[in-house]
Design a protein that fits this description.
By secondary structure, the protein is an alpha+beta fold. The protein contains nine helices and twelve strands. α1 runs antiparallel to α4.
Length: 442
């Protein structure tokens, strides 16, 4: 006779099976428009070939099969080497910048590998296991699915770097509703519970929730736009050391930055290339600026007489109303849908103009805090007080030299994002879909 816990475990297993199929199919939908030649190209040391993403996300699940499916045999030792990423405890691995130097395994072989892993995983999820073992397996499967959703977003970054407007998605979503919004929202400070404290899935770096003190502050109602950033460029922002940190200024000179990534100067006019084509920057002046580094965001903020928000300020602006009511998202507790945020399922394949998705605004009148662009904060990516690693080498090994970003982007799946989600990148990186909004003390 099954216990209530056992029945709940079986129900959760069925839900995970459905989620597994949905997530795995979405990955294949992203790569569907690619030609065979596109799968193996690595356009920069920090990018990865699409073939590698397909194999790596399968490799992650193969490690579970090895431990949980009786009689399972490893598909290929070579695959364990090539499709590993940074997990030292699972053996040797190819260096990240060499992933595009090999033609084997072929795309066909990688897809066959993925198919076999899918079949074995669904078989494993359909089996009856002891409750203790089932709980452990389901926790790891959910982590694997969240991991694959991270790679779906990385796939979008890599495909954009590889193809940009040559990529032809299966469909394009509808343009959103938009309001003309400007100015800053003033938010009362005080003690604030930062981090995740619920019962659903969240990464270990979002926990534990803990009290922090915040001063009264103001934060932009919308992300900084291309038009605003163009003013910074035209005012000599990239040639004036006053706005830049010392390391940032050195990077500007070494890399010869003059504008965000994907901006090009043509006949004295700045152009922006994205999935939809090549446009004058002035034609996209109402869209959030994207593909900027922490260095560039900080320089603009200083030029504008402001600064970037801390992650605590950002989270409070996104989650806490003026009356102190706390919610999971800026608009409330309901999960994101296509009318509240521009996320991957919207299939816009780009950012929406600032002031879009009025149904998703916060109680303070802040727009697009979820979706469109990951937003830089001033906060260092460090563990919260009381942090306990839940999976070795996943988040805990990166707690040095990086900055926190919040909110998700148009390439983030709806079920993957939370207001407490802590993304992190080095301050000079800008290949991801990164933007920002400014803040100041009042």
């Amino acid at each position: 006779m099954q216990t209530k816990k056992g029945l709940k475990t079986r129900s959760r297993s069925a839900e995970l099976s459905q989620m597994f199929q949905t997530v795995r199919e979405r990955t294949m939908r992203i790569v569907e428009p690619l030609e065979i030649e596109d799968y193996v190209i690595q356009t920069a040391p920090f990018m990865s070939p699409p073939r590698w993403h397909l194999g790596h996300t399968s490799w992650f699940f193969e490690l579970l099969l090895k431990d949980y499916l009786p009689g399972y045999e490893i598909y290929s030792e070579e695959y364990l080497y090539y499709f590993n990423s940074y997990y030292e405890r699972f053996g040797t691995r190819i260096d990240r910048d060499k992933r595009g130097t090999r033609s084997r395994p072929t795309v066909k072989e990688t897809l066959a590998y993925r198919k076999r892993i899918d079949e074995a995983m669904l078989d494993l999820l359909g089996q009856r296991n002891k409750e203790s073992k089932a709980d452990s397996l389901q926790t790891l499967v959910r982590l694997g699915l969240e991991h694959e959703m991270q790679h779906q977003e990385l796939l979008v970054y890599d495909i954009k770097h590889l193809l940009c407007d040559l990529y032809k998605p299966a469909s394009i979503g509808a343009s959103p509703d938009r309001n003309s919004i400007s100015g800053m929202a003033e938010i009362e400070g005080g003690l604030f519970l930062l981090g995740y404290s619920g019962d659903e899935f969240a990464f270990d770096n979002e926990k534990p929730a803990h009290q922090v003190f915040i001063q009264d502050f103001a934060i932009d109602r919308v992300p900084v736009s291309n038009g605003e950033y163009l003013e910074f460029i035209r005012d000599g922002g990239y040639s004036d050391f006053r706005w830049w940190f010392s390391e940032a200024w050195a990077t500007v000179r070494i890399e010869q930055w003059r504008a965000p990534l994907y901006w090009k100067l043509h006949s004295d006019e700045w152009m922006i290339r994205d999935f939809s084509g090549l446009y004058r920057a002035t034609e996209k002046s109402e869209e959030p600026v994207t593909h900027v580094s922490f260095y560039e965001a900080s320089a603009f903020a200083k030029w504008a007489g402001k600064r970037l928000p801390t992650e605590a300020e950002w989270e409070k602006a996104a989650r806490v109303s003026s009356t102190g009511t706390r919610s999971n998202f800026p608009w409330g507790d309901d999960l994101p849908v296509s009318t509240t945020a521009n996320l991957l399922e919207n299939e816009l394949w780009g950012v929406a103009p600032v002031g879009s998705y009025p149904e998703g605004r916060s109680s303070h009148g802040c727009y697009q805090m979820i979706g469109d662009v990951w937003e830089w904060t001033t906060s260092d990516y460090v563990p919260y007080p009381g942090f306990k690693a839940e999976f070795d080498e996943y988040n805990d090994k990166w707690f040095v030299g990086q900055k926190v970003l919040r909110g998700g982007s148009f390439a983030t799946p709806q079920s993957h994002i939370r207001s407490t989600y802590r993304n992190f990148f080095h301050p000079d990186e800008r290949w991801m879909i990164s933007g920002f909004r400014c803040a100041k003390i009042i």
